[in-house]
Amino acid sequence: MNIHLLPPADIELDDAISYYNEQLPGLGDAFYQEFLKTTDIISYFPEAWRKVGSNTRRANIKKFPYLVLYVVEGQDILITCIAHQHRDPRYYAERID
Q: What is the DSSP string of 4-35?
């Protein structure tokens, strides 16, 4: 399966990495590695996470309070959102299909 970050998910990923690196050098890199592990698991088992919409699924990033929203379209996994779990859900509600 091919993973694609859709705007603004790519910006959200960069922002989270930058934020964690500002808090502690190297922590953003650790966040990115956990994000990659999460997307690897999603690519192998795309149907494993619960649906939060008719087509959207939600996976949590281990060790960090972030979630990944994604949609499976054929052989593609489209990441629509990367958000802090304490963020108001209205922030990403319109990206749930």
A: EEPTTHHHHHHHHHHHHHHHSTTHHHHHHHHH
